[in-house]
Design a protein that fits this description.
Elements lengths: L3 E2 L1 H8 L3 H9 L10 E2 H7 L9 H13 L14 H39 L2 H12 L6 H15 L1 E6 L4 E4 L5 H7 L17 E6 L2 E3 L9 H5 L2 E3 L3 E3 L3 E4 L12 E12 L4 E7 L13 E6 L2 E6 L9 E7 L11 E8 L12 E5 L4 H14 L4 E7 L9 H10 L4 E5 L3 H6 L7 E5 L2 H10 L5 E2 L7
Parallel strand pairs: 3-9, 16-17, 16-19, 17-18, 19-20
Antiparallel strand pairs: 1-2, 3-4, 5-7, 5-9, 6-8, 10-11, 10-15, 11-14, 12-13, 12-15
Helix pairs in contact: 1-2, 4-11, 5-6, 5-7
Length: about 450
């Protein structure tokens, strides 16, 4: 039986993103067996792979860290807890015993064959086999890769979600829920502290360990079917879980949350950054590209969420400076969300073009950060339309995305006609447009294919 690796694990072992592996499969450069890769096939496609060749992976990790709010948990050790490490080592120890037993049986069989050859008088074959048995085996690249895979299995467990087929890694001291959200999955959850039961999922295969107590009471049937709360346990081994995910805006209920102002930062002369934090017991569930209604100081406004859904506690908004005087740190802001259907089209796995101006960047930022976190979609090109020579207010952030992601191009241009020049045929692209009325009107005149437009309560 050949050694098989999931696409996500294979990508980590050779130090590239999963999308790179998928592209090679689509281009016929890699072949799969039941959705997985053989180690020898992976090494054929990446012959220069080194055990410590993780440059691209580290670049992606850096951009993910820059793209999302850094919580205090991320300053903790990257290693799992002592109990989890012990449990994983015990599991791998059992597998090692089984492998060594099988190896010993094969060695005994070879000795028996060698002795029989000597008895039959076949000296040349006997001598050749004796020499091969005594030769010190060299650690082949495939064995090196599998050794690296064993280390990865100690540090992180891989979780596959059915029926969607999504997968992710549980690293450090994360719960399964925290790891899923960090990976950009829109799994069901509510309180995140074990009370509501919204994040319950069936463990189809693998072992989990409870890392925090919960008050939710499972029914006898749920216990028999091996249901667990994703917020209250972590993965000991690789898992397959059955869990519901949101794929459309209709899959997520409207939520009302009292948030606190945690940051006020000037972005340019017209805009400032507002960061709101939800209570620990009530994070916001939303899809990238959606917007919220904010109420504060007798003011009600609609604003797109500019942050990734992978962190539902810390929400970023880019607002007009005229509202800044009405806000102060730790002030309560009532939030109602999510609204809107300006979300990624998961059923169409085509490359994406993002078109924006200063007004439309927040939802575009949320979409791109989600793509970065999920590593499942192909980013193609971000166009920032500007009428003057000044740099866009998030120009450096966009440039850092390009530095970290080989798939993303970034163009600052004064005319939307540049897009048609670069891509005369847009039929194979998903096009997302967010911005001023002038930008959307210009796009409607120039672009002939279907595109997605960001809207606030039905208004452009």
């Amino acid at each position: 039986m050949p050694q098989l690796l999931s696409l996500s694990r294979a990508a980590r072992l050779v130090g590239v993103t999963r999308s790179k592996i998928q592209k090679k499969i689509q281009n016929g450069e890699l072949s799969t067996f039941e959705g997985k890769l053989q180690v020898t096939e992976l090494l054929r496609a990446y012959p220069e792979t080194q055990i410590d060749d993780t440059h691209m992976l580290e670049r992606v990790k850096q951009i993910k860290a820059a793209a999302t709010f850094t919580s205090s948990r991320e300053h903790e050790s990257a290693l799992p807890s002592q109990d989890v490490l012990i449990a994983r080592l015990i599991k791998l120890g059992k597998e090692l015993v089984e492998v060594k037993s099988a190896f010993n049986r094969q060695s005994e069989l070879l000795d028996t064959i060698n002795n029989k050859l000597a008895e039959f008088g076949d000296d040349s074959l006997h001598q050749w086999l004796s020499t091969e048995i005594q030769r010190s085996p060299k650690l082949e690249p495939a064995a090196q890769l599998l050794a690296n895979d064993t280390v990865l299995r100690i540090i992180a467990a891989q979780v596959k979600v059915i029926p969607s087929g999504h997968d992710f890694f549980v690293e450090g001291k994360d719960s399964i829920l925290e790891a899923a959200l960090r990976a950009g999955l829109a799994v069901n959850y509510g309180c995140e502290n074990g009370n509501c039961g919204a994040c319950k999922a069936r463990i189809v295969s693998g072992e989990v360990q409870t890392i925090r107590n919960h008050d939710y009471v499972f029914t006898d049937l749920e216990k028999q079917m091996n249901y667990q709360l994703l917020c209250s346990c972590t993965a000991i081994t690789d898992l397959t879980i059955e869990a519901a995910e949101a794929h459309n805006p209709e899959d997520i209920p409207l939520q009302q949350v009292d948030t606190k102002v945690k940051k006020l930062e000037q972005l340019n002369e017209d805009l400032f950054l507002l960061r709101l934090q939800t209570p620990r017991t009530k994070t916001l569930r939303f899809l990238a590209g959606q917007y919220a209604t904010l109420q504060f100081d007798n003011t009600e406004i609609q604003a797109f969420i500019a942050s990734c859904p992978c962190d539902g506690r810390n929400l970023e908004f880019h607002l007009s400076c005229k509202f800044k005087k009405n806000l102060k740190l730790n002030q309560i802001v009532k939030l109602e969300a999510p609204h809107g259907d300006f979300v990624l089209q998961e059923d169409l796995k085509r490359p994406a073009l993002f078109i924006t101006d200063d007004k439309g960047f927040p939802p575009i930022k949320s979409l791109i950060e989600h793509v970065i976190a999920s590593d499942n979609e192909t980013i193609n090109h971000l166009y920032w339309i500007t009428n003057d020579e000044t740099e866009p207010y998030q120009h450096n952030l966009c440039r850092s995305w390009v530095d970290a992601l080989d798939d993303l191009k970034y163009t600052r241009t004064q005319t939307i006609n540049q897009i048609v020049t670069d891509y005369p045929d847009l039929s194979n692209f998903e096009v997302y447009i967010a911005g001023s009325d002038d930008l959307i009107s210009a796009a409607a005149k120039v672009l002939t294919n279907k595109y997605h437009i960001a809207k606030l309560r039905g208004e452009k």
